[in-house]
Amino acid sequence: MGASGRLLHAVLMGAPGSGKRTLALRITKHFQLQKFSSGDLLRDNMLRDTEFGVLAKVFMDQGKLIPDDIMTRLTLHELKNFTRESWLLCGFPRTLRQAEALQRVYQIHLVMNLSVPVEVIRQRLSARWIHPSSGRVYNLEFNPPKAVGVDDLTGEPLVQREDDRPETLNERLKAYEDQTKPVLEYYREKGVLETFCGTETDKIWPCVYAFLQTKVPQIDQKASVTP
């Protein structure tokens, strides 16, 4: 429930490398919100070979973006199981069509947008490596794996995403900006957009924490802002 006793539907937005995943994990650790990540939903459905997973894999294998309608159907299908819980969407919606489709089914009460300088994002992503099957993310500068090049839990090799490489990153960031600019304007006009600016997740987090304290019950009322 939100601070007013109603269910709260929230969205966390930010460019690739802005720190969405880290902040989403901190938010759900401290506040009564169920997190839904579009990336995690895709990975799970692909591993289970669901209808959505099979469809998504076809597009990804061809190097194409997954169409709006597939991502929207996947997300809405998952949210149907959580009608009595407050939730946080991370990575969805990314286009105006997705935002409008979501709004037709659920009222969105709060949208948090992370604004991080492009130079900082470039630096972060150039040092980012992932464990493909789980989605675990490592950063060679501030969150390195225990052993070079392998996942801490499985010992399997880490990879650098093709679109994290410098030669494709600029195009990816430009595409994100073009896609999400209308989405941010859409939510700004509805009066639910709150933007948090900064260069470090640890400095943005206290502002997000203080803001959410007025909106969502905490899991432990005695907990501090410490991640």
Automatic annotation (TrEMBL):
AMP binds at S38, R43, K64, L65, I66, G91, F92, P93, R94, Q98, R161, R172. Keywords: GTP-binding, Kinase, Mitochondrion, Nucleotide-binding, Transferase. Residues 127-164 are annotated as: LID. SUPFAM superfamilies: P-loop containing nucleoside triphosphate hydrolases (SSF52540). GO terms for molecular function: AMP kinase activity; ATP binding; GTP binding; nucleoside triphosphate adenylate kinase activity. Its EC number is 2.7.4.10. InterPro entries: Adenyl_kin_sub, Adenylat/UMP-CMP_kin, Adenylate_kinase_lid-dom, AK3/Ak4_mitochondrial, P-loop_NTPase. Involved in maintaining the homeostasis of cellular nucleotides by catalyzing the interconversion of nucleoside phosphates. Has GTP:AMP phosphotransferase and ITP:AMP phosphotransferase activities. This is GTP:AMP phosphotransferase AK3, mitochondrial. The gene is LOC103679957.
